[in-house]
Write a structure and sequence with these properties.
Layout: E1 2-3, E2 8-12, E3 15-20, E4 25-29, H1 31-41, H2 46-57, H3 61-77, E5 81-82
Antiparallel strand pairs: 1-5, 2-3, 3-4
Helix pairs in contact: 2-3
């Protein structure tokens, strides 16, 4: 999965903001969504993201997997990422 090349993102005081110039919109990501976003940007696959999130937040990997899938689905619905 790749981030669109025109998407702009910034981390300001620990908050992550994603700007979509095509839709003239801005999204603020919570801490977990921001970590998922940054890992996807770096080309990490879902298994690597699940492992990291479940370790950071001490969450069961199965529950974590479905929550991450839901977050990725939302990213795609907002048009931030696309499949390669």
């Amino acid at each position: 999965m790749k981030i669109r090349t025109d998407i702009i993102w910034r981390e300001i005081d620990g908050e992550v903001f994603v700007i979509d110039p095509q839709k003239d919109s801005c999204f603020e990501l919570n801490e977990t969504a921001a970590l998922i976003f940054k890992m996807l940007r770096k080309g990490k696959d879902i298994s690597e993201i699940v492992k990291k999130i479940s370790e950071v937040y001490d969450v069961d990997e199965k529950i974590c997997y479905w929550d991450i899938c839901d977050t990725i689905k939302k990213f795609k619905e907002k048009g931030m990422f696309y499949e390669e």
